[in-house]
Amino acid sequence: MAAEDVTESRLLLAEYDRIKEEQKARIGFRDNLLYFTLAASTAVLTITVQNRRAQLLLAVPVICLVLGWTYLVNDEKISAIGRYIRDQLGPRLAELSGARGAVFGWEAYHRDDASRTTRKRLQTAFDLFTYLALPMTCVIAFWSSRSVHPLLLVVSIVQTLALAMLTWQFLHYSEH
Asked: Which pTM value belongs to this model?
């Protein structure tokens, strides 16, 4: 491509294509994290029941903390890409092209859905169930067992505090 073929508009369109690919990949990865979390937690619960070893329940909070944080980070990046397209890339391209309306209109259009707020709240509730309620149920079940050793009790308390921080992060990001 000759230097005169490189225009700001072409560069912006190329950037748009790349960040939409990144967004698409992150969405797939994020959604698979949810399934993997549920599968891994189910596997731990099955092994715990089969072996009757309540201390194994403390693996579920670890799974949920690591995968929940990864889920949350990816979700935030997905949203950040959308904001960047709406607030930066679209307006710059509209100005360069002389477009009268919004460029990349879908980025704003799908956010105006009347059911969006309800969907976001339901998604947050589901995320909190998966990444907080499920692991806390395991911690409480561990506390209720006969296998509560002092060191594991400390571990479970640290896990509870970490889960509380993760919950706050989920609630904080759901406001955006």
From this structure: 0.86
